[in-house]
Write a structure and sequence with these properties.
By secondary structure, the protein is of the alpha+beta class. Helices cover 50% and strands 15% of the residues. It has three domains: 116 residues, Orthogonal Bundle (Butyryl-Coa Dehydrogenase, subunit A, domain 1), CATH 1.10.540; 108 residues, Butyryl-CoA Dehydrogenase, subunit A, domain 2; 153 residues, Up-down Bundle (Butyryl-CoA Dehydrogenase, subunit A, domain 3), CATH 1.20.140. The protein has a four-stranded mixed beta sheet with strand order 1-4-5-8. Strands 2-3-7-6 form a four-stranded antiparallel beta sheet, with no helix packed on it. Helix 1 runs parallel beside helix 4, helix 5 runs antiparallel to helix 6 and helix 9 packs parallel to helix 11. The longest helix has 29 residues. About 2% of the residues have low confidence. Bound molecules: flavin-adenine dinucleotide.
Length: 399
């Protein structure tokens, strides 16, 4: 087993860190306070190639393989202090561009991928509804065939990037089949289609520079060739891509974790109380020893998931473990960092309370911690409490 990364990969990470530290996140406090999207930062990401890292070169993307994409995103999360901006990038990439790359027809790919890669269009993913969160089988949004169109009706909640997005990957019920495996389909819907409206923009505690909204589809006519895959493929597409989303979306969070752990180490060495650095006190030192251990474990899990995906191997179990572990570790580490900084950690100006607020969301989006544990238990062969909705992979609910 080879744990080394190549000189080119190290160089890639260094370049991304330099870019992110010097050109992104400089106004993170402002965008957090205002709840505003950093369009200038977004354009700089497009210019640097971030928005096309995993997209094939023929569509203008960087054509990075999965492992290099993960390394680059880890570096982006480490270097960029605006976690909302990085979250917006992740949604754009994993919940829109990658869906198109993997499941779009040639014409959909040719039409949308260059726009997404060069930042001329912003992508979003509309799955959740008021009554269908963890349980996506309860989805009520419907699409009915009408000649060479589908007519979409429904309301999607909590759509990240929603208020600023131009392209939505939308999931809807296309048949009355009880089993979600056959009832759902996925569509590419653009903001300018008649009947698409942002009907709410949510104020939220963290990741405030990534706007989130409610999107309503009212008699929205979608050309039939805007379907991803074939009719009834929606659940399969969602499940297959969710494993990627869950795994890869957390690459940047491993970078955030490194930033938090390093900040803790600096504080432990520099802050003096009782005539010595606080890192000389055993409880502080042991907390930091544990934090470094968790960082190492998170990175190993991330690289293993990337390694599995790179070889087209199933990684449902490992992705659920990664999502669960990294999201909870980032949250716990951010809280410890606040404690380590005493009153300063609680001040807005130090940016640590923002890290805490940003970290809280990770245990909810892309499937809650409880649903990851449920999926892990099912994938390990334990009996399911979800009754008829269960399927062998444990993916019949959003996990
Ligand atoms: C920051 C953020 C960004 C998001 N971005 C998007 C997006 O871009 N697109 C999108 O479609 N959605 C998005 N979401 C929505 C997200 O996917 C859902 O919030 C999530 O799937 C949970 O659904 P819910 O909020 O309805 O909670 P519910 O499903 O109502 O769950 C409520 C609680 O009950 C628990 N629970 C539910 N069922 C079970 C069970 N079987 N066993 C044990 N516990 C259970 C849950 O774990 C949770 O603690 C986002 C959410 C957040 C916070």
């Amino acid at each position: 087993m080879d744990f080394s990364i190549s000189a080119e990969q190290r160089n890639l990470q260094s370049r991304v860190i330099r870019f992110a530290q010097s050109e992104l996140g400089t106004e993170a406090e402002f965008h957090d306070r205002e709840g505003s999207f950093d369009l200038a930062g977004w354009r700089r990401c497009a210019d640097f190639g971030v928005l096309g890292w995993p997209v094939p070169r023929e569509y203008g993307g960087g054509g990075l393989d999965l492992f290099d994409t993960v390394l680059a995103l880890e570096a982006l999360g480490y270097g960029c202090h605006d976690n909302g901006l990085v979250f917006a990038v992740n949604n754009h990439l994993w919940a829109c561009a990658v869906y198109l790359t993997r499941h779009g027809s040639d014409s959909l790919r040719a039409r949308f991928l260059p726009e997404l890669v060069f930042g001329r269009m912003i992508g979003a993913h509309a799955l959740t509804e008021a009554g269908a969160g963890s349980d996506i089988a309860a989805m009520e949004t419907v699409a009915q065939r009408s000649g060479d169109h589908w007519v979409l009706n429904g309301v999607k909640s909590f759509v990240s990037n929603g208020p600023v997005a131009d392209v939505f990957i939308v999931f809807a019920r296309t048949s009355d089949a009880a089993a979600p495996q056959r009832a759902l389909s996925a569509f590419v819907v653009t903001r300018d289609m008649p009947g698409v409206a942002v009907t709410d923009t949510f104020d939220k505690s963290g990741l405030r520079s990534c706007p989130m909204g409610e999107i309503t589809f009212d008699e929205c006519r979608i050309p039939a060739d805007h379907m991803l895959g074939v009719e009834g493929d929606g659940h399969h597409i969602f499940s297959a891509t969710a494993a990627w989303e869950r795994g890869m979306m957390f690459a940047s969070q491993v970078g955030v974790l490194r930033r938090l752990v390093e900040a803790g180490m600096r504080q432990a060495k520099s802050r003096q109380q009782f005539g010595r650095p606080i890192g000389a006190f055993q409880s502080v030192a042991h907390d930091l020893a544990d934090a470094n251990l968790r960082l190492e474990l998170a990175r190993l899990l991330l690289y293993k998931v990337a390694w599995l995906h790179q070889r087209d191997r199933t990684a449902l179990l490992e992705s659920a473990m990664l999502k669960l572990y990294v999201s909870e570790t980032v949250r716990d580490t951010a809280l410890s960092l606040m404690q380590l900084h005493g009153a300063r950690g609680y001040l807005t100006a130090w940016g640590i309370e923002r890290e805490v607020r940003d970290a809280l969301a990770g245990t909810i989006y892309a499937g809650t911690s409880q649903m990851q544990r449920e999926a892990i238990a099912q994938l390990l062969g334990l009996p399911s409490g979800l009754g008829a909705r269960r399927e062998p992979t444990g993916q019949a609910v959003r996990a």
